[in-house]
Amino acid sequence: MESKIVVIGSSNTDMVIKADHFPLPGETLLGGEFLMTPGGKGANQAVAAARLGGQVTFITKVGQDIFGQQAQQHFRQEGIDSRFVLQDHNFASGVALITVDKKGENTIVVASGANGALTLRDVQNAEAELDACSFVLLQLEIPMPTVIGTTELANKKGKKVIINPAPATVLPDSLLQDLYLLTPNRTETETITGISITNLPSAQKAAEVLIGKGVQNVIITLGSEGALVATNGYSKLIPAKQVVPVDTTAAGDVFNGAIAVALSEGASLEEAALFASKAAAISVTRLGAQASAPYRKEISTSI
What we know:
Elements: E1 4-8, E2 12-18, E3 34-39, H1 41-51, E4 55-63, H2 66-77, E5 81-88, E6 94-100, E7 106-111, H3 120-124, H4 127-132, E8 133-138, H5 144-156, E9 160-163, H6 173-176, E10 181-182, H7 186-193, H8 200-212, E11 217-221, E12 227-231, E13 234-238, H9 251-264, H10 269-283
Parallel strand pairs: 1-4, 1-8, 2-6, 4-5, 8-9, 9-10, 10-11
Antiparallel strand pairs: 2-3, 6-7, 11-12, 12-13
Helix pairs in contact: 1-9, 7-8, 9-10
């Protein structure tokens, strides 16, 4: 049976240019296709979860500008409860400048704007939504005190907290001890554990370190190699579906949104990772962040 998911995080407007390669310092490139689309890790994950059938409330902060207005309208159209998409009077909405090369890889520069003003008090004002949910999904494009305070609040309420630790940063052990699930990629895993992820054994070692720090469950995403699911004394590699990538911008966000949906429907961690891998594989064959997120009907209806 489905349960409510609260996603707390960033909302940006992504400005994407495709190019043959990434520019060198001082180099000007004539790029190809330009796309302006909704983005931000929090918003990406909220949209991905909603498209996959999740009952989603999104808590974020935007500016009093056209980007913020468009974001609010967009969330409503996606079927997301957007009552807690807040407007900030002092900062503009977040913006991300993205370059995508011919291999589908990307570089991203973000101006956080109003995302940096999302506070624990803002989350506390939506406390009734936390009371009603089973899973809380967070990322790190909002202030760390907000992430830590929200996690503590959710734990006191008996909620399961999922953190996608992106962008990569060192996390305090006190935060890790409160997590039901941590979903780092290679870079983020190395930042948190100090272990370079070069193969499956090194990923397993890093997962053991994270579990030793108190994280209940870990899923390390390894791109085309799949995802390593680990709990105390157990790990399994879930293979990724092989596709030709067009744009990998939001693959991790789609993966995390899908994980939250599957878990909210009662799936095991392995089942959730397989479902999420299918969703992420579809997303990398499309250009854009939220625009690339698949709908439930595009994946097998059974998890």
